Amino acid sequence: MTTARSDAESAARLVALGMRPKQLPARDVVYAELVTRYRQDDDFKGIVNAIAAGLGMVVLAVTRQSGMVLAAQEDSVFEIRMDEYARRTAIGGRRGAEKVIHGVIHMAVAAIGFPRPDDLANDTYIGRVSVEQVDAMVREACRMLEERAKAAEANNDPLEDAPELERAWRAYARRPAAAITKDGRLAADTTRGMTAKAMRFLAEQGFLVQVNADQSGTYRTTPRYQVQVRELAAVRAFDELLDLGVVAVTGSGGSLHTASDTLSGELPDV
Amino acid sequence: MGGGIADEGLARRLKALACTAPLHDLDGRKARLDWADASGYQMAEIALQIIDQVTIAMDFDRGAGHEQVVVRMRPFVGAQATDRDEDEHDRITRWVLDNLINVGSVDRGFHTVYGTFGVTGEYQRRAFDFKLLVELAGPDGEVYLRATDEAINVLVGALDTDVESAQIAAEVKLENLIRRGRLSDAKLAAEQARYRTVQYAETLRRKLDATRRDVRAVDWTAEVPDLIDEALRHIEDRFRAENAILRNITAARDDAEDADRKRRAADLVDIVGDCIRRHTQLQARLQSAGETFRAEQDRQQFSGPPQRAAVDLFGQLLVPCLDLPLAGAERPTSAFFGAGAGLRLPSVPGLVGLVEMLLVPAQERDGLGGDVAEPDLAPLPASDRYTEQQWRAVDNLFELDEIPRRLSGLLGEARRIDGDLAGLVVLRALHAFSPEVGSAVRQGERWLVLAVADGTDLMDTEYGGADLLVARARLDPQSPQSPQSAEDGEVA
């Protein structure tokens, strides 16, 4: 009886530690012991998973590098919703565009952090991300899509009465990268401002660690972020895309080098 | 989507036309500036000049800073209004600059609507968004300006031209003009050649940037080496041509007798000198391109085949999402965010925590600012000094015919009705002293009360000043252009 209780207490403690994103097994002996126990003792693992499930969370991984990685189930109290995140930046009637740009930036941070599928799969990989890189990469992608649209010779300008049918890349490309406010600060509603916000947010959540302030802020990824993206975020977004019937097949080397288009796309205006 | 070929040409011309609209708009709105009488400034000219300055300052790494533009514009803006001080000139420049960026709109750009025909032949309205000047952050975090392709196209007036052949054309024209001694045309041609050079450098800069981001993004086995060779050959030609031109016009400058001609030749020497400087810069970049590639290749190591299946974040998520319509992209991006953002930890204030929370000094807000509080609106306190009856009484007093009356007489009459009325009568008379004739005409008023001073002093116990002549003037709506004369006629 007492063992059952103390097991439950230890299991709950592990869950509690997992909820502190900046706590790491490497820096905490108790945490490290609990992680080892989770990996070796199946009964204990069962209790931990049950406690997490009861609280409305899923255990994504428990490793010495990442610690315990938890994710909120949909509609759980722990879930962070895009509506809350993008709330303060919503301006005017175009909230849809605002949310999509925020979402795209989060995807782009992950895509720069783990440029190849291999990097996402390799547990020892640590990526480096900077605000400047993320913005430049998305803009480059937007430019490629623009070239492709031009090549298809279709008129892609959005219809005046259906702005929600505007392509996402167009909305992103139109948003300025940087701008100065009247008092000389950088404006927050620009893509760089939004990217900086996303990275600060991820750092707070224990997913990124700031390395230096170069290129408007350079960060490195944490194992926790890798697990979160690989096990959950990428899969969910991918499923959503499948529902929409959008399936992109890329090679094993990844496609962040969507190569010669970049160049041939630019050649005509030389 | 997309209509016929003729339709496409129309759309292109409409777009080109739209790019000039912000410049015309500046002159239309200058009259509404309340901090200066801006009618003397040619805003469209200033705007074009600003775009020129920004374009000229654009090179590989950066563009023009805001302040730099303002300083460089001083002589030009100053020449338009010599009687104003430098502060006003700077302010005008900033106003035009802000309008070219379109500060205040979320996207900092311009938006126009044009029509096309859909596949089935129905008329469709489409939105066209464009920018003239954009703000970009440099490597050092400073924000600087660059002119967009639209702006350069509006400025140079050559949409859809092949840069290379246009440059050759400009060179030939330039040499011809110099030979024939037409220096102002030669200057124009030299400037055009410089814009081409800038455009060319801009394209190359983008290419090198792509390489720096990912080596594999560029085909380094054939395409880029060819391109670099081509560009180097191009620069060689330009050097030869421009040095010849430079020799020619330097001689023209030194031989010229006429001061004006001499000055213009000197300008031209400067411009061509700048062209040569730019080519040198471009050449240096081209020569170090191979080195950049090797260094980047070392840095961006290639790794082995994947160890397990994982999603390709860029190719399978980001690009497909960017390619979706906004309405469709919302679900996958929100799903990614929700699943990738981690946990929201509900904060539970304990007593100790609460005390600490209350004692913590006010936190610094992040750059996004807080929610805007709903203001508590209270009704304004009644501010009417005079009652409804008093107003009516004074209205009756001012029901004059066309024979003017003295203010002193009106005051006396008012005091007989109500001791308090005198103040209101004085105020009404003052108001009538310089009435807004124009707006009264616009509002379709037939009559206007008018007061004129004829030099008689007011002898009154409470008020001093001139004993105004108050009369009613008839407004002639037929000649709204000259309300002044109508009024004069009626009063006299």
In brief, what are we looking at here?
The complex is a heterodimer of chains A (270) and B (492). Chain A has eleven helices and five strands, in the order H-H-H-E-E-H-H-H-E-H-H-H-E-E-H-H.
Kindly describe this structure.
The complex is a heterodimer of chains A (270) and B (492). Chain A has 270 residues and is mainly alpha-helical. Chain A has two domains: 2-72, no CATH class; 95-222 and 252-269, no CATH class. Chain A is built from eleven helices and five strands. Chain A has helices spanning 2-18, 29-40, 42-55, 82-85, 95-113, 117-121, 131-151, 168-174, 191-204, 223-243, 259-266, and strands at residues 57-63, 67-72, 128-130, 208-212, 218-221. The longest helix of chain A has 21 residues, at 131-151. The radius of gyration of chain A is 21 Å and the shape is elongated. The termini of chain B are far apart. With 492 residues, chain B is mostly helical. Chain B has a three-stranded antiparallel sheet. The longest helix of chain B is centred in the middle third of the chain and has 41 residues, at 259-299. Helix content of chain B is 58%, strand content 8%. Chain B is built from 17 helices and seven strands. The radius of gyration of chain B is 35 Å and the shape is extended. Chain B has three domains: 1-159, no CATH class; 161-298, no CATH class; 388-491, no CATH class. Chains A and B meet through strand 2, helix 5, helix 6, helix 7 and helix 8 of A and strand 1, strand 2, strand 3, helix 7 and helix 8 of B.
